[in-house]
């Protein structure tokens, strides 16, 4: 990553196994794709059933599926905030709307998981187009707050005036049907597949997860994605280069809405339910916490953030003494991350591993940092 | 609609507007002059509501306080109304020094994220201590029913306006006039205005803009604390009210136009009017109304009703 590491590896003899090759490989699309497949294959097992490790995690299969879906949500959100620099405090609107659309379509029109998820995604895209027309005229905090206002409007609309359609706080139930009419989603496998993946529903969600990761990597590596980044860094300069900033922002917004809508549709299929709480501001807040905590603008960050969030929510919550404090601990660590270390958990990890490659320098740096800390500590 | 109906309607609109306004005023000033967006402002409202409750009455709470039985001083409503803003004023000073100041130079989005984190943490902290179930302020005898003044009794036409709503509206009116006067007629107000215009220039002319800013921040905080006490008696008190009040307040500030106090006042009045109209005509739309209003207004005027400063553009 940094110039130092590259120079080091040039000096050393360049064998097949060197930092240089690793640095090259880890940024290729194929590597990202394969590691996301590997992640899906191993995640549920390590989290919920592997001998020693799952005993530490205390996870379970259902939570693993929830984490995968929310990771898609976080990746979609990150495309907008991390990549393009637009902080939406109302992304719950896409999640909740897609969920509702999926459920309504399944109940009133045609119930088939793939079609239902697609309908959810399309509904989110439609909402994205409408809200983008309002939101993209606004900047920074205006954008965030008005996005929140739109989400809250939809929440209160779904809760009372539209109670005939949405069933208000009771929500909608969707019956479970077979995928494409033949594949039973709840069919549990035996043998190796059963150990790793358990059931078809997990595979169904996992395929979408890998597809979203692949899509986002493609966007990140493409010139198109680079323009998103340049808008994040400096909108005015991007416009001066001659690019139509509005159009790119619109594209990023719609892409983000579509991915979040996909997550919303999957959530409806997974839980067989769509409810008004998916439109509430706390969903928007949670996704901000997850993404920022994990690491903005990266691919692994949002996934790690989602994992940490649900680890606290689903598992630390059940701990005897600590359980009561899970949200307090989580929100405090979120605040600390934004305050002190804006790169998030993933940023910490990568910085640390880069530092580890040169242990001598790490020791020297730490010594110097300590030396710096002591006298200046008394002064300020 | 009878005269009673109109008066009742007006006071619902005005009292809701007042409550939002008391919270939004601090937000608006800090956002406009310091370019600092403070979601943690909701903490001050939340703190005001609970501190006021502790002063005003003595109740059985859930959470960590559940074993202690009745907690609170039980001094009544008036001491709570006077003491709470003072305590929240001090809390505001602490917040400015330790939360806001390190972030003045940083990105608006960082400010938004950090203060959001602080707000969520504070709400959870309150929930752990006081429990998650809501309470309501015990309303003293003289605050219930229609207003009745000494000597003249209930003024003509006012029988539909409840005393608490009249109190909220009157207090807000006085406080808002005070803040306008502060800006217009005092040296500190002048320093704040100068600092808003160009803080570097003001400092070069020998004006310490830091202190007036601190003062105005703390005053805004005290207003939010007072709103907590008043809001607690109009609505209910739960650990989630910080976020519940901050969303509409931020929306009002943005709708009115950031940096314009006049805009905030107009925005709050519009929101209150919409709220009351929805209550009359379509009760199910009551809580959605303000967001609908904001979206319509900001679609027509992206910089708010009274655009004055350009923030983040």
UniProtKB/TrEMBL annotation, chain A:
The keyword Transmembrane helix applies. It is a multi-pass membrane protein. It is found in: Cell membrane. The chain crosses the membrane at residues 31-48, 60-80, 92-110, 116-136, 141-158, 201-219, 246-267, 287-312, 324-342. GO terms for cellular component: plasma membrane. GO terms for molecular function: branched-chain amino acid transmembrane transporter activity. This is Branched-chain amino acid ABC transporter permease. It comes from Haloarcula mannanilytica.
From TrEMBL, chain B:
Coiled coil: none annotated. This is Branched-chain amino acid ABC transporter permease. It comes from Haloarcula mannanilytica. GO terms for biological process: amino acid transport. Keywords: Amino-acid transport, Cell membrane, Membrane, Transmembrane, Transmembrane helix, Transport. The keyword Nucleus does not apply. Pfam families: BPD_transp_2. The chain crosses the membrane at residues 6-31, 43-61, 73-100, 112-131, 164-183, 213-235, 247-276, 288-306. GO terms for cellular component: plasma membrane.
